[in-house]
Write a structure and sequence with these properties.
One of its GO terms (molecular function) is (1,4)-alpha-D-glucan 1-alpha-D-glucosylmutase activity. This is Malto-oligosyltrehalose synthase. The protein is α/β, with parallel strands linked by helices. Among the domains are: 166 residues, TIM Barrel (Alpha-Beta Barrel), CATH 3.20.20.80; 125 residues, Maltooligosyl trehalose synthase, domain 2 (2-Layer Sandwich); 119 residues, no CATH class. 43% of the residues lie in helices and 13% in strands. The chain contains 29 helices and 27 strands. Strands 16-15-14-5-2-1-18-17 form an 8-stranded parallel beta sheet. A 6-stranded antiparallel beta sheet has the order 19-21-22-27-24-25, with helices on one face. A 3-stranded antiparallel beta sheet has the order 6-13-12, with no helix packed on it. α12 crosses α18 and α25 runs parallel beside α27. The longest helix is centred in the C-terminal third of the chain and has 28 residues. It is globular.
Length: 801
Amino acid sequence: MRLPLSTYRLQIRESFTLDDATEVTEYLRDLGVSWAYLSPILEATPGSDHGYDVVDVTRVDPARGGAEGLSRFVDAARAAELGILVDIVPNHMGVSEPRANAWWWDVLRQGRASAHAAAFDIDWEFGHGRLRVPILGADLADEIGEITYDPTPADDAPDGLIRYYDHVFPVAPGTGTDAAASGSSEAVAALLDAQNFELRFWQDEAADLNYRRFFAVTTLAGVRVELPEVFDATHAEILRWVREGLADGLRVDHPDGLVDPGGYLDRLAVALEEAGEGEVGYVLGEKILEHGEALPSWWKTAGTTGYDALAEIDRVLTDPAGESALDALDARLRSDSDLPALTGWHDLIHDTKRKIADSIQVSEIRRLVRGLPAVLREEFEVEVLQDALAEILACFPVYRSYLPAGRAHLDAAAGDAEVRRPELGDVIEKLVPVLADTSLEVAWRFQQTTGPVMAKGVEDTAFYRYTRLGSLTEVGGDPGEFSLDVAGFHTAQALRHASWPTAMTTLSTHDTKRGEDTRARIAVLAEIPETWAARLEEFRGIASTGHGPFDALLWQAIVGAWPASASTPEGLKVYRERLHAYAEKAAREASEITGWWEQDEAFEERMHAVVDAATGPAAERVRAFVDEISPAGWSNGLSAKLLQIMGPGVPDVYQGSELWEQSLVDPDNRRAVDFAERRRLLASIDAPGARPPAVDATGAAKLLVTSRALRLRREHPLEIYRPLEAAGAAADHVVAFDRGGVFAVATRLPHGLMAAGGWRETVVLLPDTPVIDVLTGRSFAGGAVPVADLLAVYPVALLIF
């Protein structure tokens, strides 16, 4: 099996097609990249910027370059000696524009008689034989006058079309009438009654939907790849890429959404082996692991996509001494805002997960109730069963189990639920054996439901409420785990090296809540909690939402993502627009004061006023604080990058993050990348006689670290992972390891280091052999090397014999 040494993620879209990607393959080679890693390239919803809303599984998206563009990209990648990893989406398809998705369109037209009806996870009985489509602005009776019948035949709609504003639907065979064409509301209503779909108020999606979705996204319909014929149909084009040498590996999006992720990966492995003529394919699973959770050992995968590594790296660079002071600040903010004090992270996420279970996941939970054995539905009221299931889901400690493995998670959730809700003890006790019985469909569906409740309750709600240190509220991270000491970090890396040496590691993705260098700067606040508390009070005096914890979240984002471009009026204007979008999303995701369904206009006005003030009258004061903490943030950023690239696993560089990556949550993290500027900077760094670039706002120093580390990985096999010792007064500020004659040395807690007097006599203990720092070209004798000398130019060093 061909294995990557590193990857570089490229977001392929209409504004950056496969042909555009072709133009950067030589740059990726020069950077030191091993494989190019493409976002989904199957045809997606028109205008999609991410590609996870696939509408046609049979072809490469023409808007992204099509099959010809892929062929040209592959030729260029091979010429640059790059492997190719492609992101695939087996769990769901995009249905926001039904006509763009031929399978979904045919199901709307023909219902259960459609050849594609089995491809989608639809509860036809609950819908009385019809597919429920929640797109109306109000109840049907109030909207009927806006719905029209167009009898004009079309190739994909021989019986005409039903129109509602921009929405278009096919008419079922033989149901079009002249009366409906006349526009009579009664006749249109009768026509609608004859269709294989039912138009519903959009808010009905929460409770009355009858098809499985991706999380709570109604425009992404669940696909039943557990059926062999559906697997074959959805993977034929993907397997062609492998068979024809167009792809070397696959990244599987959201396997937890599938009925049986392990079974899916088994089937995929067999199919890849056949397509590769006996060659086993490289496969990664986008699996989110909770703190302390292990990846299922029987999965046929090289490992996760790396959020677990991200959490470890962020935490070893976070000062544990700041935790109590930040907790105290959070308590004051909550008290000043008349908010209840937090009792702990796990109590918070129980409540936010329960909120999700009681709102946007009600459709899924009601489907679980319908799937329970009749004896239970006869013994208990439907509402009681729904309540008990929601409570178990809210208490579930991980994204999902994989029965029969993971029964302990179910038992733990049930036990916690009984403690929290003792009045439900009888029903919970009787539910557990059913939910553990893999001969029952409901047991499998329950496992598919724990993930959405976890993701929406934690990542998309609690992360925006638990605001003491925003760098810790990241996908795959448990912000209840504040920091990680150096010994704990080494233990985690040694375990990855021993168990999952070809798993991906990451620092930024299209899904991270903050870019890696935004987090690196925010992490500095843990070293200066009293200073931060004073600055936050000052900033809140300038502008505040009135909600202290949200103010903390927003001001952290403002200073953490503050870009060098904000030094110009135009750059400041662009940043202001980015912050407005972030603030709106963060506040609505938190759903404490305002939300996606109902907005609190007064709160949102205050929220936007904070952004306007920060980037207007207060800009100089904010910039002064950014300047104060940026050097330590840059140090953290360089350390994180070196630890990731040189650590165990396959490091991924998210597009553009070889310079400072100071994005916020999507879609901010999918902004266009200036590859011409990166190519120019790399050439200047590589030029003969070039001096090592300064650590400054340009990010050139990060490009140096990234390129040298990637090239070293490509040129030297990293066969071991062995911690290196440091000794002296500042030894706790060193993270260093040996990869087999290649040594990485990084600084942690840089602000505290300087405040305590610097490195002083601290040494790092190397083999007694001369070494060269590939970042600076400087030589050292080996043995006990003074860290002050070793890190005189950069806060990191990369040494070879």
